[in-house]
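FIELD: query
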Amino acid sequence: MELTQHTPDLSAYLAADEAIDHEHPVVRETAARLAEGVADSYAYARSAYEFVRDTIPHSQDSQDPRVTWRASDVLRQRTGICHAKAHALAALLRAEDIPAALCYQRLTWDDGGGHVLHGLVAVRFNGAWHRQDPRGNKPGVDAQFSLGGERLAFVPDPKSTEMDYPVLYAEPNPGVLAALKAAPDRSALAATLPTHL
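FIELD: result
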């Protein structure tokens, strides 16, 4: 699949916004801690990815009812769904001047009832974009940081009308962000998240 930038200007994928608030002290402090002792930007990107994947539980997996959406809140509260974790990883990457984009998959709910958008991150190295999934591993899910072939949490099944969206966005999808901001808890969020772009 060929990934395409929604915004041609690469600087947009380094910008801060209300969700990817990489200028916030919590994000800056976390980025500085992760950058200590790493050899280069690639090692930093892997470290940031593994930090978000492994130390911030996916709220559905942990049954945490809280809804986070701003990167700094995800890092502070240590919880979030895939979209929130993607915002956190994008913020940590951008804090160290590594271009990061948000991207999406359309997947079937775990119970098979309908579809939901799944949030990912793409990181830019050596003139190319590489998708990464920081949602968190669990039995049956083994996502890994990789520039040499995708190691995502899920592979869409076209027979179930699942799909990868090839467009890379500098900002969160407005429907996803609105649902995250409005949800009083995770169970309410499940009913309002968009099912497609």
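FIELD: remark
Residues 41-55 form the longest helix (15 residues).
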